[in-house]
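Internal QA ticket QA-208
Title: Verify multi-chain structure generation after dependency bump
Assignee: T.L.

Test input:
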Amino acid sequence: MWHNWSVRIGGGALIVLVAIALAAPWLGTVDPTLFDAASRDLRPGETGEISTLEGDQLKHRFLMGSDSFGRDIYSRVLYGTRVSLIVGLAAALVALTFGVLCGLSAGYLRWLDGPLMRVMDGIMAIPAILIAIAVVALWRASLPSVVIAIAIPEIPRVTRLVRSLVLTIREEPYVEAAIALGTPTAKIMFGHILPNTMAPLLVQGTYICAFAILLEAILSFLGVGLPPEIPTWGNIMAEGRVQFVAYPHNVFFPGVFLAVTVLAVNMFGDGLRDTLDPKMAKRL
Amino acid sequence: MSTLDVKGLTVRLPKGADRPEAISDISFSVERGEILCLVGESGSGKTVIAHSIMGLLPKTLTLARGEVRLEGEELTRAAESRRRELRGARMAMIFQEPMSALNPVMRCGAQIEEVLRYHTRKSSSERRARALALMSEVALPDPERLLDAYPHQLSGGQRQRVGIAIALALEPTLLIADEPTTALDVTTQAQILRLIVDLQRRHGMAVLFVTHDFGVVAEIAHRVAVLREGRLVELGDKQAVLTRPRDAYTRMLIGAVPTLKPHARAVAEDAPVVLATNALSKTYVERGWLRRKRELPAASDVTLELRRGQTLGIVGESGSGKSTVARCIVRLIEPSSGEIRLSGVDLARLRPRELRPLRRRVQIVFQDPYRSLNPRRSVGEAIIEGPLNYGVPRGEALERARRLMELVRMDPAALERYPHQFSGGQRQRICIARALAVEPELLVADEAVSALDVSVQAQVLQLLEEIRIRLQLAMLFITHDLRVAAQVCDHVAVMQAGRIVEYGPAERIFLEPRHEYTRALFAAAPGRNFAFAPA
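Actual output:
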């Protein structure tokens, strides 16, 4: 798997991003919520002051400049990496879990197929972003509610994928052999069929992850995502949008991180697909 | 000058393959008006030879050495444009699977005309006329209508005829046929073989016929080339090779071909009845919102009886309903009506919950060894699954699995390994062990040896025979291959279109078939009148 260049580049970039997220406090950052009216709208690389919660004044070099409240963009972007990666991973896990359960049931238990898939069709008919906005509006905006809001529109896609895989795998002779051996239905579903759907699921998971990171940024940007005090790339960009012409760095740096992350996840997924399913790979 | 002259042809395999070369130093020639059969087991390189002659090698294989001369013209170093001119025009190919060899979204007539469009300057009406003539030549019924039909509207035999018509369109001097009848039923196969021989005589073509079936070889070949792992081990006149093989491998292969003579062994007529079906039927009902209900009977009124320690064969062509019967008996599908009595208990009406404890008494071995084992489970896990379901403790189940591995002649250490590490024959042995692990009374073999090479097939058949005797199993043997049926069955039921047309002791059926369909089936068996060298 590691021989594939897409996996190497995408995976490498992801490892760096995870390391950044984990090591954010030790990478020359300050608390991302700190601000100082004296250090507003600094350009990248300028030095200014920042006041801590205790009221001390600290000298700080603003590597990526500061925003109109005088907060350090560099610190906010780095801490934002945490939010983005958590949202991406959690949304993918939630969507996969529910999608797999629905897909397995719809594909293997014929009587459930019709009703369940019509519900999925219903969810598919509503634009993802509308569902997400509605869910966040129903509950208070928080990390779990945003994750669920992003995961729900993905569930039908996973369900469809799993169902189609199950429909082919259930006809395999080894499944019929298991039936003949008296294996209980649940064991056949989770012991024989599910493990054989894993490869395409894993790939689908990476795409969901990339989409979730993007959607979280979009929701935050629209102001319906995580509350503005939490540093997310979408929030930073939303706040910087007004002054984009004068101070483009407010949007530029989180934008670059967002683009690189989504690209890395997608590349990793593409590479994963090529190595897990060599038939799909491009001929070299 | 020979039509085709192959000298020292060597094709390299990519790194990491089981051998360095797909074919090594292959030399032979095919004369005008001659049929040369290339025979070999799977992986022997026979298709690679056919493809290297046509210049159709996949990119992963590289032609290392050797030359291919078509009517004296060297091909391996010819420009691709020249080869393209020759393909179709001077040499043409027929493929194994007629459905995938034809374009499913193009009408048959258009596919025949396509060859003419690229290689000739004929007008569209001339092309159509030629296509019609070709379709009559390959004896397709109602060519006018079939010209505008799509491949899926044709039967397998008709599709293969269209494939042959395409190959013949430009009157090639060399025809390469790559297992053209392997995917067809035996009666259709007989017709296609006759057609190929006819056309070959009429046009005086040279034919290179790739096959794994010695019956087919006996039927049509003039000369035979035997391949083993990419090397030519024997080349000679058909009579000489098939009746007096010089090479030990050829002798082994020919010896492994089962004869059509039924075995003569006494059957105990008073053994207890294990399986008795009574008027078993399966009808598929197709319902649609705006359509009338359609009933498709897959099997009707099947009444059979099988006693302990005996083998009952169900013989028939594809679509005859033989697999449907087998799957009903194992209760993989619901029978529509009738009884399935297993040692007296009727399984046909049992609900899943009532059925589960009884399932272990009937086990099945499937045709495709590559799909019969879960690729993500070790062999050991596969074998102990059944016993675990019936409450056997894990340690004991593993012990049983080890004993079974020895019974099917495999190393018990293989229990730790995964299915992809085994060959087709080995996998089939594992499947047999898995079925035996729950100590069934009835073993259903659904085309269980049909996908195997003839030498492996002989070993698996022998193994099944030993197991039947040793465990006094009742065996239901589903097959399309009359030779296999003759070798293993005590009783035979011949099925056609969902019904049993003839049923009786194997010896009686094989020696004096009464029903005309049975007779037609036997008449179609390739090489039936040929006396192969004894094993």
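Spot checks passed. Chain B has 20 helices and 20 strands.
Status: verified.
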